[in-house]
Design a protein that fits this description.
- With about 150 residues, the protein is an alpha/beta fold.
- The chain has a single domain, classed as Rossmann fold (3-Layer(aba) Sandwich).
- About 45% of the residues lie in helices and about 20% in strands.
- It is built from 5 helices and 6 strands.
- The strands form 2 sheets. A 3-stranded mixed sheet has the order 2-1-3. Strands 4-5-6 form a 3-stranded parallel sheet, with helices on both faces.
- The chain is globular.
- The mean pLDDT is about 90.
Length: about 150
Amino acid sequence: MKVPVTIDTREQRPYLFERYEVRLSKHALSAGDYALTGLDDCCGIERKSKADMFHTYSKGQRRFTRMLTLMRERHPYNAVVIECTMAEFMKGPDYWRGRRNRKAHARIVRSTILGWQSSYRTPFLFIGNRDQTEYYVYDMLRIWYGRLKGGR
């Protein structure tokens, strides 16, 4: 079964899913970077690198929380995936190297994420490296596709 995946046209570093059974298409999504083609009103996944998540916290909260609101309102299936483990995240982004209180700042960002997770009913998943996160995104979309199409 090929999973029909839509990638948002604004996604800067899209997954190509070359190792997986997918049928790819690209168009502008209202929320998130990945969705099921034809079912993008039911599901959405936002992808963030570690640096991007910290940048979103410091410079892009308004846009990001608008996107989370859209995901909560429109998508019964949604998630934010972050391309690092929680332990890696807590070290802060590379551009914080040498910064005093680096770990304290990372704890503040983590607390904000936990707040967003509960306020917007959207899981934030710290997966690991980019390849692991790509597989996780594929697997979530595959499972959601089966459920939305009346399968398991």
